[in-house]
TrEMBL record:
Residues in Transcription regulator PadR N-terminal domain copies: 15-86
Species whose genome carries this gene: Micromonospora vulcania
Residues in the signal sequence: none
Pfam families: PadR
Organism lineage string: Bacteria, Bacillati, Actinomycetota, Actinomycetes, Micromonosporales
InterPro entries: Metal_resp_DNA-bind_regulator, Tscrpt_reg_PadR_N, WH-like_DNA-bd_sf, WH_DNA-bd_sf
Full protein name: PadR family transcriptional regulator
Transmembrane segments: none
């Protein structure tokens, strides 16, 4: 199974989850996703997801000046983003439970 196809379906949820505890700028969010185990996530995918989530009203942004380079645009969850994270998290858990059950029933679980 191609991991990139799985990532496309859950990248919104993963980005919202990463921003749940701490705001972040694009590269920082990418780094945190990779450190969490999503090593195959691409730069363009994360930046595109951030733009889409912002346009959907799920994130707010602010700029922080940097002494060592260009200013950084930080992303933060707003109330709508937190609500979406909760809804999507419940849906994901239900889906994952169903898939685990299917695989267990057929002797395919890890």
């Amino acid at each position: 199974m191609d991991t990139t196809q799985l990532l496309k379906g859950v990248l919104d949820l993963a980005v919202l989850a990463v921003l749940r505890e701490e705001d972040g700028y694009g590269y920082d969010i990418l780094r945190r996703l990779r450190e969490a185990g999503l090593e195959e996530v691409g730069d363009a995918s994360v930046y595109g997801t951030l733009r889409r989530l912002f346009a959907a009203g799920l994130l707010t942004t602010y700029v922080v000046p940097s002494e060592s380079g260009p200013h950084r645009k930080y992303y933060a969850l707003n109330a709508a983003g937190r609500d979406q994270l909760t809804r999507s998290g419940k849906l994901w858990r239900s889906f994952a439970t169903t898939m685990d059950s299917l695989l267990d029933d057929r002797g395919l679980a890890a």
